[in-house]
Amino acid sequence: MAWSASRASSAGCSLNRPTQNARAVATSNNPTVTSKVALSEVVVLRLDGLDSMVAKLAQLGFDTKGPVVRDGAVVPGPITGVGDLPCGVHDEQAPGSYQLNYSDDGRLFDWAVGPGSWKAEFFPPSQEVWRAAMVGDSLQFSEPAAPAASLAIVGARPCELAALDVLDRVLKDGAHRDPVYAERRERAFVAVVECATPAATCFCSSMGTGPGIEVGFDLALTEIDDADGHRFVVRAGSDVGANVLSGLAHEAARDEDLEARGRVLDKAAARMGRHLQTEGLASLLARNVDHPRWADVAERCLSCANCTLVCPTCFCSDVRDTTDLGGALQRRRVWSSCFDLDHSYLHGGAVRTSASSRYRQWMTHKLSTWWDQFDTSGCVGCGRCIAWCPVGIDITEEAAFIAASDDATTANAVSKTSAS
User: Fold this and answer.
1) How many CA atoms lie within 13 A of 71 on its CB side?
2) Residue 403 phi, psi (nearest 5)
């Protein structure tokens, strides 16, 4: 796994950073205003407006988090203003490789997703379910209190909102509702930032989850830095989002701003580093459970579970009970993985004893049988499983290889050629 970071000057991150022409903050033709913003209205924020937005979320009582640089990667963390965001940070990703680079361009969201997803804020890697202790002759149980503050996320990517929507189907809206997850999600505020610079491992456009987004957010921002200055085109997707924008210094979005947003998204889609052919993919994998490619993958796969740990939709978990010398009991739910040998333990033994069977289970569930269970794909095209696999196994490459050697696909192609 190649992992490194190089740092250069990031002096361009100041709120007072000069813009590229005199119109940057306001002009007589398009003055800065602080009026009430309506639902679905589109406005423009400058850096100081974005900073005020983060501050306002705190004033409204939100526990505000966003992307920060920690341990050489862009990951979720607490923020109090734009000064905490990854200014001038860019990433390079490839199979088994992740690296940060720094510049003085002052852009805040010029990177693709890192190893940490927002899933952990709602479905933590380890959380207490209950604890119990002997009080006199009786065993008394207690459950942990829910966090007092609601969560506000600033800077989630469209693919990450799509991943949360997938988790919602399982943990919030499914037959077995997780009350802790559901409450945390229903109270959350999300300001998504559309993706301008996908990594070489990204394929969200194949999955229909990016680089832009139209629904499912409180606010949607697009970062633009051109001749009209560094700014954010912001759309209000909920009443709460419109309320947060109201009173902030903003400008009415012009046609030129909307056109600039379109160019950002078009360029991002054109730069997408990977592609996954989704049409017929579920049935393709279902009829190829004995394909020899699984054995080939097993020779490379370490069964380390990195792909499931960084995946924003994997939700497998285990329950562990512990006790101390004083007799207190605690039950915790922790993340698990289908790559763990004991994950398929049934009646005295593991069902999936080989690495090939475990990788097949992960990939076919993600891209095929997830449709049967939840009426959606379990993959949002974020590319994390490719970048953070120590040996660089690429899910898009594996799917393409199976498709190219699929008997049914080949026979169908031959039939069409003969008919013509």
Assistant:
1) 6
2) -65, -40
